[in-house]
What does this fold into?
Amino acid sequence: MLREFIEQLDKLPQKAMVNCVEINPEKPLIGIISAQNDVSFAHKNLDAICKRVKDGITASGATTKVTHVASIDCTALHGTQSTKYDLPSRDLTANAVELICSNEFFDGLVFVASEPNIVAGMLLGAIRLNIPCAFVCEGTMMPIEHQNKEHGFAHFFEQIARIKTGKTPFEAIEEIESNLPIALGTDCERYGANSFNCILEAVGLAVKGNGTAPALSVERKTIAYKTGELAVKLANSKFTPRRVLTQTSLCNLVTLDLACGGSSTTMLNLIAIAKELGIKNLTFDTIGDMAKSTPMLLHCEDERRCIMPQFHKAGGVYGMLKHLLEARLIKGDVFVSDGFTLEQMLANTTVSNINVIRPTDNSVMGSSRLRTIRGNVAEKGAFVQYSEESSFTGTAKVYSNEEMAVDALLHREIRSGDVVVIRGEGPQSGPGMREIYSSLALLKGFDLEDKVAVITDGRIPDFYNGIVVGHITPESSEQSVFSVLQDGDEIEISIPKGKITCDIKAKELAQRQRDADIGVSNYGNFFLKNWAKTCATAIEGCIYKFKK
It folds into this structure.
């Protein structure tokens, strides 16, 4: 692309630029877009990944240049205002990619990032430009060891509750701190923290093991090198995202994610990607229908060990895809890279541990643990996450944001039988749509997972094993039953029926809505407030709303 660009007589300024920045126009030019960030768990070591990517690119006969985008990492910041920027960072990243790469110099791109919303933003930008691209991440962090058991990062939040109740001695803080993770990366105990990097393997935009291999390992370096090679191959064949991301392949990604447990954030991003591609048949409702017929196959065989290392050793994403293909739950005739179909890519794949990656006739659950749910509390829909397909009826305890819910938990105000209502965390009401991570980790630490339910217009992490309803739409900034719930209201959540309801009489509801002071009252600086004004609802993927 670059050679043809500068060969024209009127491109003398461009020729001068190419000479100054030392680009060889005789070879393909592959851009490396890095989210390197020295104050990030997931992005601190990306420079080392970029170096190996460069080696793979140059060995394949191409040239490369590195540029950077801003990134955010909320691993240690849950429960703070900083995490409000997590989901909006997706759209900022997409715009940055479009801006950086619109110069038409690059024949292909390698995106180097780990955080799901940053990676999703990079893919959205690549789709807009329709330029060949490959992805690689830093890998999963080293587990935290405590009392002969491995833990993910939620362990630190859970220990706050356990120390508060005396289940963990205060003196144990020193031992916990002595086992802080020394290998950075994404959370090794959460599939959801790695889900987007996993599903990219299924469409050939990331090499095998990208989503599961540990950080700082020899295998991770090999993956980075192969990613460079893959990018050159895709650039030479002009295999663009719009060629690989079809309606069928996106449905495969939804099925893969659901079989691994389901990440509500990944579903939100897949809906956004479908809308960017102009695919109309991947919606909140179709995901809900697919969830009912997709079994959960990923199982933590050894409860003392974290899930991602077990998943990787058992066969990783390719192993999961193999079982889904054999059960005809995904389509194998879609193209994943130039000249190869998904079925051909998986031809030599084996699953080394069927207790971790279960076959469909021995599933962990007969359907995904992530479902869609509706009712007068969520008139347009919501996601519900659960460990058992059951019902829960309880009394509402209402909080205007997660900080208030956390404070109530630490003061032991929440009891068995409560439905914890956390409002003001939606894309507009937040603004920003945080994961309600801290409150769920504390509930887990207080051993209240199976004794309460949680509902919110925010996002929900996947480590929680109780009933939690998230992405509630309409959110709390709009006139709805959810926006006027009060302490003492009786809320029923029925997973088998897919219903979430509160019995409020019409007259009482009308009075509450007249009296309610509904609006965006939470923290938000200019960027967040502007993003909130322009984004669609959660069930629409929080995409940018174009003004007509």
Q: What stands out?
A: DSSP finds 20 helices and 16 strands in the chain. The mean pLDDT is 90. Residues 56 and 228 are 4 Å apart (CA to CA). The first strand starts at residue 29 and ends at 34.
